[in-house]
Amino acid sequence: MINVIVSYTVKPEFVPANKANIQKFLDDFKNLDSSAFEYKVYVKEDGVTFLHYSNYLNEEVQHEVLNIPSFKEFQRVRDESGLKGSHKVEFLESII
């Protein structure tokens, strides 16, 4: 199992667009086999820091999910919005 947390902070004026782009790829994820992965998105109390939590059965599933066109477009637009070096990717190891 692959477990990942991604966090980043956007400019306040980009929050509505970011939320809309997230909803697009989450809607597309519904067409995939949800038994092979989990993907959740949260916004922290500051209203501008997003946290994406995902887990994948294996690398093949991760590759399939992360290459959905709407997800790649979300990433492109998000990155171009100016993250000010806040983008952080962490891999988690299960202790169970």
Tell me what the structure shows.
This protein is α+β, with helices and mostly antiparallel strands. The chain has helices at 15-29, 59-66, 69-80; strands at 2-9, 37-43, 49-56, 88-92. Strands 2-3-1-4 form a four-stranded antiparallel sheet, covered by helices on one side. The protein starts with a strand and ends with a strand.
Query: Rg, please?
Result: 13 Å
Low-confidence stretches: none
Strand order in the largest sheet: 2-3-1-4
Number of DSSP helical runs: 3
Question: Distance between the terminal alpha carbons, to the nearest Å?
Answer: 11 Å
Query: Could you describe the largest sheet, including whether it forms a barrel?
Result: 4 strands, antiparallel
Strand content: 25-35%
- Spatial shape: globular
Mean pLDDT: 95
Total DSSP E strands = 4
Percentage of helical residues? 25-40%
Judged by helices, strands and strand pairing, the structural class is alpha+beta
Order of helices and strands: EHEEHHE
